[in-house]
Amino acid sequence: MSNRRKLGRRTEHYYATMKNLCAALFEHGSINTTISKAKEMRSPMDKLITLAKRAFNGDLSARRRALSQLPRLADMSVILSKVGEATQARQGGYVSVRRIGFRCDGAVEANIRILDYKPVKPTETPYNQDNSLQNQGNN
Q1: Which one, of 120, 100, 83, lies nearest residue 32 by Cα?
Q2: What is the three-class DSSP state of 65?
């Protein structure tokens, strides 16, 4: 018997869903999803955060393993180092799952977040100081 929730998906789709949810959680620090997905996501997130902590302490193999399990985002290595730094004092239980209500289809919705981690907002914007677009072509 399998020890995981199937979530109504085939194996490849299940792993792709978990990979993308973990990447979104690393990027945003907190996401809303169904309670089943949130509970199922706790275990891989704890393992990835443990790898991020080891990578922050200089373990190159842990950094490569963590990056291989996440989608190829340009700033994922920076995010991993910030998560590793933020969770150094914690020995486990890095994520928190809270029920927040029901979706329109009746599914229980939950908020999952990484404890002790504040995601950095991107500073780049396509607008100048006077709210005009930066790279407008000369017409």
Answers
A1: 100
A2: helix
CA 44 to chain centre: 10
pLDDT digit string, tens, across residues 40-99: 999 999 999 999 999 999 999 999 998 888 887 767 888 888 888 999 998 988 999 999
Q: Where are the domains of the chain?
A: 11-114
Q: How far is CA 126 from CA 26, 41, 119, 129, in A?
A: 24, 34, 20, 10
In this structure, the number of other CB atoms found within 10 A of the CB of residue 70 comes to 18
Say which CATH topology domain 11-114 has: 50s Ribosomal Protein L17; Chain: A, (3.90.1030)
Q: What is the DSSP letter of 8?
A: T
Q: Positive or negative CA dihedral for 121, 21, 23, 57? A: positive
User: Distance (Å, rounded) from C-alpha 43 to C-alpha 35?
Assistant: 14
CA dihedral 58, 76, 100, 46 (to 10 degrees): -30
